[in-house]
């Protein structure tokens, strides 16, 4: 009896292993497509859910690295900053998805992003077996920023000029530190903080940083992981593909609002700058990055330029 049970469990095990081998080979065409490419992954603060989910994210990034793709991670941390400000009884105020950042809160923003979230994200990847190095835009002169005075008119919707305080936009990206890390076989993990000409610290929206970094390293793809399935329409249904003019109309009529605005703006800029694709996808789905890159049916919202 025991002997029989052992034999059938051996056979089950063998079948499972065969299935795994088949699965691995089914990724071959996608591997051929992406090996050697640089892929920028924006890991939103809202997508950093459970321990299980975040370790699946770390494993995805490690796997990409180990098969010869060059991932660069840019992380957010909006909810984590808000929680800390709340603890300190300081208010959080957003205008069209950007945090108004005063002198007092910029120190907290930097502390949370660089001191805490950055190291946690690098650790997720390290634990999965690929070496990651956490840096901010101040390291190696990566992100020189200037004060954001006016939203880029990518979509032509924002004519007002609110004062965002110590919020910056990338003025110059020096990707040398990224190339050195990638060249040494390491995975850069970037906190969205920039330095100003006069030594100021700027809080930059992580979506914007991801787009600027993707442009500077000629990334073939930009993946934006967030806490919704993608861009949703007015009835709450996923929009699988979105062009620039559709996006503009949806921001105008309020269907796209808050934190989704900088995401959509960034993706549009990335594809306009030559990225093959920019996708907003659900970071709450385990292995969202692998599903997007290594399966036929992508998920989320693919952002496209308008057809001429
Ligand atoms: N049309 C839309 N489709 C999906 N999400 C939207 C839309 N408009 C606004 N949002 C909001 O944008 C949020 C994602 O942005 P944000 O909170 O900044 O995420 P992240 O931390 O990942 O950057 C969603 O949780 C949702 O509340
Ligand atoms: C200027 C600005 O809004 N900066 C963001 C930086 C973090 C971020 O972008 O985090 P998510 O990606 O999780 O939203 C903030 O202070 O919340």
Automatic annotation (TrEMBL):
Pathway annotation: Amino-acid biosynthesis; L-arginine biosynthesis; N(2)-acetyl-L-ornithine from L-glutamate: step 2/4
Location relative to the cell: Cytoplasm
Pfam families per record: AA_kinase
Residue ranges occupied by any Aspartate/glutamate/uridylate kinase domain in the UniProt entry: 38-281
Keywords tagged on the record: Amino-acid biosynthesis, Arginine biosynthesis, ATP-binding, Cytoplasm, Kinase, Nucleotide-binding, Transferase
GO terms, molecular function: kinase activity
UniProt-annotated site: Transition state stabilizer, residues: 42, 263
Catalytic reactions on record: N-acetyl-L-glutamate + ATP = N-acetyl-L-glutamyl 5-phosphate + ADP
Class of this enzyme: transferase
Binding site for substrate: 77-78, 99, 203
Keyword Transferase annotated: yes
UniProt xrefs under InterPro entries: AceGlu_kinase-like_sf (IPR036393), AcgluKinase_fam (IPR004662), ArgB (IPR037528), Asp/Glu/Uridylate_kinase (IPR001048), Glu/AcGlu_kinase (IPR001057), NAGK-C (IPR041727)
Main location: cytoplasm
Family note: Belongs to the acetylglutamate kinase family. ArgB subfamily.
Function: Catalyzes the ATP-dependent phosphorylation of N-acetyl-L-glutamate.
Name of protein: Acetylglutamate kinase
Organism lineage string: Bacteria, Pseudomonadati, Pseudomonadota, Alphaproteobacteria, Acetobacterales
Gene of this entry: argB
């Amino acid at each position: 009896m025991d002997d029989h049970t052992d034999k059938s469990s051996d056979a089950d095990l063998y079948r499972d292993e065969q299935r795994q081998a088949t699965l691995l080979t089914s990724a071959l065409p996608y591997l051929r497509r992406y090996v050697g490419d640089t892929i920028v992954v924006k890991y939103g603060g809202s997508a950093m859910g459970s321990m299980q989910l975040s370790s699946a994210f770390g494993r995805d990034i490690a796997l990409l690295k180990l098969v010869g793709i060059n991932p660069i991670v840019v992380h957010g941390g909006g909810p984590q900053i808000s929680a800390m400000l709340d603890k300190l009884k300081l208010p959080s105020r957003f205008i069209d998805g950007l945090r108004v950042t005063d002198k007092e809160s910029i120190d907290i923003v930097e502390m949370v992003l660089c001191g805490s979230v950055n190291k946690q994200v690098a650790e997720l990847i390290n634990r999965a077996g690929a070496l990651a190095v956490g840096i901010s835009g101040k390291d190696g002169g990566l992100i020189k920023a200037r004060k954001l005075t006016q939203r880029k008119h990518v979509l032509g919707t924002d004519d007002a000029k609110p004062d965002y305080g110590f919020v910056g936009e990338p003025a110059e990206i020096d990707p040398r530190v990224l190339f050195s890390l990638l060249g040494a076989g390491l995975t850069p993990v970037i906190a969205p903080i920039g330095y100003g000409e006069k030594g100021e610290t700027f809080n930059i929206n992580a979506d914007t940083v991801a787009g600027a970094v993707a442009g500077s390293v000629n990334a073939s793809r930009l993946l934006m992981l967030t806490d919704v399935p993608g861009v949703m329409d007015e009835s709450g249904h996923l929009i699988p593909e979105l062009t620039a003019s559709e996006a503009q109309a949806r921001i105008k009529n309020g269907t796209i609002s808050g934190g989704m605005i900088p995401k959509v703006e960034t993706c549009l800029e990335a594809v306009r700058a030559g990225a093959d694709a920019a996708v907003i996808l659900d970071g709450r789905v385990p292995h969202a990055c692998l599903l997007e890159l290594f399966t036929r049916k992508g998920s989320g919202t693919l952002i496209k330029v308008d057809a001429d």
